Amino acid sequence: MSRVYNFSAGPATLPVEVLEECARDMLDYKGCGMSVMEMSHRSKMFDNIIKEAESDLRKLLSVPENYKILFLQGGASQQFAAVPLNLMKNKKAGYIVTGQWAKKAYAEAKLYGEAIELASSADKTFSYIPDCDDLPIGEDMDYVYICENNTIYGTKFPSLPNTKGKILVSDQSSCFLSEPVDVTKYGLIFAGVQKNVGPAGMVIAIIREDLIREDVLAGTPTMLKYKTHADNGSMYNTPNCWCIYVCGLVFKYLLKNGGLEAMKKHNEEKAKILYDYLDQSKLFLGTVRKDCRSLMNVPFVVNPEVIPNKEERDALEAKFIAESKKAGLENLKGHRSVGGMRASIYNAMPLDGVKALVRFMGKFEKENMK
Ligand SMILES: *Cc1c(COP(=O)(O)O)cnc(C)c1O
């Protein structure tokens, strides 16, 4: 068996220990003679799986009793509609636009009410997080929306915005469980799990109970009401059983390895190695303002001051991506909308993976700097 270091932004690398456990359980889960993929979601066996996943996640993130944890389908993108449909009582909400995902959520909210851009970092290709201390938040706004870690641009909110008492809704898809967070500061957190937690096809929503309402916007599909899923323990219809099972294994793995404090230390250590290298590199340039750097997604380019010719730069970046792949470092190509390179270094990326990347970058730099 040979495994590569996989820097994909998502679906992304998972802990080997967890994959091995899935493999062991594959044909015969705990002596029941079938795999988790084959069992009824109404079985006792699966009931244990989903209940344990929920309680382990509650423990990991210290989710208070007055918050519900929901396992939903449709990915993080479906939440772009679910949020306004469920929460826009006054049909007015504020959006902080810090990248493509926030932009998509903002555009979706406009279909259902008045979505107002409170701040944006579009002026500098989303390379920073705008100052959010004193935003023009109206009295009648139902919530303030952020994308907390911007997967494509590699920024993260250094601190949460001042919402002036309004409900904070956060898309945490690419930083979920990478460090502890104070859940009580949010009304709703959601995260597509394929970035930092599990396989693709599920989103976890953590929502304060008083925000789970019957009086949602007229025409809201039953499947998009939080109440539907909260009332039915995420089993109104067939949930993504396999994904819930794998996420459950990841939660146990995280608990066993020191929880989110330990994960934060591990992630800071990895990110520091990469950013320290970038900060002294002549050939490569990190694209994000230093105080807004993400611990999870690290975009970089060939420095235009060193190689001013765009075609030459593009060719060198293509060469970097091809050669890194040969060296067992996969998926370092930047998002198709921005180009360049991006290393996603989620929880499951080992320290040795980041060290190997930095060694490779150093070698490439030596060979390609004239
Ligand atoms: C990947 C991503 C999404 C979209 O997730 P899907 O599950 O593909 O819908 C939304 N927001 C952020 C921050 C992401 O990284």
Give me the secondary-structure topology.
Blueprint: E1 5-6, H1 16-25, H2 44-61, E2 67-72, H3 75-87, E3 92-97, H4 100-109, E4 114-120, E5 143-147, E6 149-150, E7 155-156, E8 167-171, E9 188-192, E10 203-208, H5 226-231, H6 241-256, H7 259-280, E11 284-286, E12 297-302, H8 310-326, E13 329-330, E14 341-344, H9 351-368
Parallel strand pairs: 1-13, 3-4, 3-5, 5-8, 8-9
Antiparallel strand pairs: 2-10, 6-7, 9-10, 11-12, 12-14
Pyridoxal-5'-phosphate (PLP) binds at residues 10, 75-77, 101, 147, 151, 171, 173-174, 192, 195.
Task: Describe what you observe in this structure.
By secondary structure, this protein is an alpha/beta fold. It folds into 2 domains: 16-256, Aspartate Aminotransferase, domain 2, CATH 3.40.640.10; 259-368, Aspartate Aminotransferase, domain 1 (Alpha-Beta Complex). Helices cover 35% and strands 16% of the residues. It is built from 9 helices and 14 strands. The protein has a 7-stranded mixed β-sheet with strand order 2-10-9-8-5-3-4. A 3-stranded antiparallel β-sheet has the order 11-12-14. Strand 3, helix 4 (100-109) and strand 4 form a beta-alpha-beta unit. Helix 1 crosses helix 6 (241-256) and helix 7 runs parallel beside helix 9 (351-368). The chain is globular. The two termini are 39 Å apart. The model has no long low-confidence stretch (mean pLDDT 97). Bound molecules: pyridoxal-5'-phosphate (PLP).
